[in-house]
Design brief:
- The protein has about 260 residues and is of the alpha+beta class.
- It has 2 domains: about 70 residues; about 160 residues, OmpA-like domain (60s Ribosomal Protein L30, Chain: A, 2-Layer Sandwich), CATH 3.30.1330.60.
- It contains 6 helices and 5 strands.
- A 5-stranded mixed sheet has the order 1-2-5-3-4.
- Strand 3, helix 4 and strand 4 form a beta-alpha-beta unit.
- Helix 1 runs antiparallel to helix 3.
- The N and C termini lie far apart (about 105 Å).
């Protein structure tokens, strides 16, 4: 009986030992799982923190990007409005030039086209008058025919007081040196001054619209080696232009937002 009791005790101890070992292993496994889960949780927390930081950065970038896009749109709108306005003004100027050309040609229709040529060049109106219509050879004094031509031109330009008039004298390359004329520069300037003075004093063109300039023989229309070419180069050009301040305002671009 005693031996039986001892055997039972030993069996119980073995069972308990076996259970303890199993429980210990399960506990260790659970601890490993807990450690692994804790590591995962820590990783997820770090990831979330990083994502939040990125989202914060993205919101700042988006705000800055939105402001940049807004500024770009405002700039584009201003540039578009400027182009529309410029196009409209150019069209208006072209319409004025067309009206000027038609009125000048109508007014000067009884004068030979070889002596007076009217054209639009570089966006402005040119009236080119041969020297024989205005001056005697080598002289800067206006002849009798000049009065009729200049009077008709003045009548037209006086109807457009928002335009300026530049008068340019041109010569051929035959050297000039007389008692009254020093050289070709002198002749070209004096001829331009004579025309300007007549437009102001006799035909009431406002002097603040007038400019006199001499080109000598440095802007020829034709070859100076021929008689015909020299005749074409001896001319006076009346150039009708927009007022310079208005012209520069026309070319000013809008300010781009900072």
């Amino acid at each position: 009986m005693r031996n039986h009791t001892v055997i039972l005790s030993l069996l119980a101890l073995m069972f308990l030992s076996s259970c303890g070992t199993k429980l210990k292993k399960e506990l260790e496994l659970k601890n490993e799982q807990i450690t692994h889960l804790q590591e995962q949780l820590h990783h997820e927390q770090n990831t979330n923190t990083s994502l939040l930081a990125r989202l914060s950065d993205l919101s700042v970038i988006s705000k800055a990007g939105a402001e940049s896009i807004q500024n770009s749109l405002e700039s584009i709108n201003q540039q578009y409005a400027f182009i529309e306005d410029l196009t409209e003004k150019i069209q208006d100027k072209d319409s004025i030039n067309l009206a000027l050309v038609l009125n000048l040609k109508r007014s000067l229709s009884d004068i030979n086209d070889d002596d007076v040529q009217i054209e639009v060049r570089d966006g402005v109106v040119y009236v080119s008058i041969s020297d024989k219509m205005l001056f005697s050879s080598g002289s800067s004094r206006l002849g009798s025919q000049a009065q009729e031509v200049l009077g008709k031109i003045a009548t037209v330009v006086n109807d457009h007081d928002d335009l300026d008039i530049l008068v340019e004298g041109h010569t051929d390359d035959v050297p000039m040196n007389t008692e009254c004329i020093a050289d070709n520069w002198d002749l070209s300037v004096k001829r331009a001054t004579s025309v300007v003075r007549a437009l102001q004093n006799e035909y009431y063109v406002s002097p603040d619209r007038l400019t006199a300039a001499g080109r000598s023989y440095y802007m020829p229309k034709a070859d100076n080696s021929t008689h015909v070419g020299r005749g074409l180069n001896r001319r006076t050009e009346i150039i009708i232009t927009p007022k310079l301040d208005q012209f520069f305002q026309l070319l000013e671009s809008p300010k781009v937002p900072g």
